Amino acid sequence: MNNERRPRSNCARLFKTPGSSRGLLRAVNTIVGAPAPLIRGRLLTFAGIFLVSAGLRAAVTSVSPIMASIEKDVAFTPFTVGLLGMMAPLTFAVAGSLTPLVARRIGLEWSMVVAALFMGLGQILRATSTDPTGFLGWTIVAMAGIGAANVLLPPLVKRFFPDRISTMSSVYIVVAVASSIVPAYFAVPLQQATDWRISIGSWGLIAVIAAVPWLGTLYRERGSDLTYAVAHAPGVAKRVWTSPTSWAMTLGFAVAAFQTYAMFAWLPVILQERSGLTDTESGIMLAVYAAMALPMGFFIPRLIRRLENLFGMFAAASAFFVIGDLGLWLLPDTVTWLWVVLAGVGPALFSMNLVMIAYRTATQAGAVVLSGMVQGVGYALGAVGPLLIGILHGASNDWSGEFALLVGVGLLPLISGFILRRKSTVDEPRPS
User: Fold this and answer.
1) Assigned fold of 39-419
2) Quick check: pTM over 0.85?
3) Residue pLDDT, tens place only, 398-429
4) Closest C-alpha among 51, 177, 184 to residue 117
5) Which of 162, 175, 227, 354 is the most exposed place for a label (fewest CB within 10 A)?
6) What are the structural domain ranges in the chain?
């Protein structure tokens, strides 16, 4: 069934919608198949999703372009730099695994409020750090909030915008990508105009503000049945965790995390050492790398909704990873921008798997479990990327081992694409 136009349980939706004419109209539109207006009646939730997405990746990409300046006040070593790069996906993994349990108890909205505050305060407070321990500690807080928000966004879209899944997926994916581009691009100029503490701490204000619309949603819907803890139907978690489709999505997400966070941590260093770029130029290239996911966010949700066989999309992502990594390895001084662009298209795997969470589940409970699994396990596997690159770089300075590893990992999405060539839902009972 096409979740985009005719969500499941239409009759139940009619009686569960708050008793206003606007809510009744939305329920009737859902039943007859006409999508409700995108924002009308859903402004607070739209604003909440937009603002959370706007602050989603700033904590990751605002640091590496100005790492040289940070090291003057915070005594980082190559190992701790690799550990810092590993911190994001590792913390995302832990938060992704725990968030479904928290959402079951306090609900999706309250969980998002907590996540937004963690995101914002962690970034602001780490800017006050004077040693690696404090910097890493507050980074963990910020990353925990981001990891929780990552898990919560797909089920929130499925819940509040069941008639606009592809549209809202495009909105939050594009805004999230922009939240990685802008800090990477402005990190050096902002640091030069002020200092590195303001450069990395100022982005946390967006996440703090993002909590306000969710508090407004909780106030508006108090007493209604829209603010409830996520309940699990019997057997949902087991069906999700034993589905080959779930594991194929998890593998694809893990490859995206491995490649992306390895590049976020090490691309500026690679370009400075191998291509002779300056700090500013390498920061711009990092922004270009992150920006390549921006156009992907516009059309990938629609392709996921329409295509029956997804092997071609996964094979294309694999090809972009491999060609981009080979170019940076073998021809670093020749059309460097082209290899950065190609390598930057590969992380479209993030968007592909995030959108599939809504389309490969039949229930909200299933979406929460699948989101936690894909992102929890996927980030855990991807977390070793920055650390392995750091260890290999410490052992040798020719970058051959590092790029051989990246190319090998880039081939793995072919396995995911083969399994995902057929559509299926992971939380519905399967024939015995």
Assistant:
1) Growth Hormone; Chain: A; (1.20.1250)
2) no
3) 889 999 999 999 999 999 999 998 888 898 87
4) 51
5) 227
6) 39-419
